[in-house]
Amino acid sequence: MREILEKYVYECKVPVDRIWLMPCCGSRLEHSEKAYIVADLCKKYKFNFSPRLQLVIWDKALKV
After folding, report:
1. pTM, full prediction
2. What is the C-alpha to C-alpha distance for residues 10 and 39, in angstroms, rounded to an integer?
3. Where are the beta strands (DSSP E) in the chain?
């Protein structure tokens, strides 16, 4: 979060409503464990949240 805030919000002046975060994960289980953490950060900083739909739907990170 520090890097995102310092580099993009403060230094580059990217509006927070133009910043999207998504969980870094490789499986549906890992996504379900991490998504709420990222969503809470998005709520706190007013960023946008995006799930990794390929994991939610197909449980695959690549070749979907």
Report:
1. 0.85
2. 21
3. 20-21, 48-49
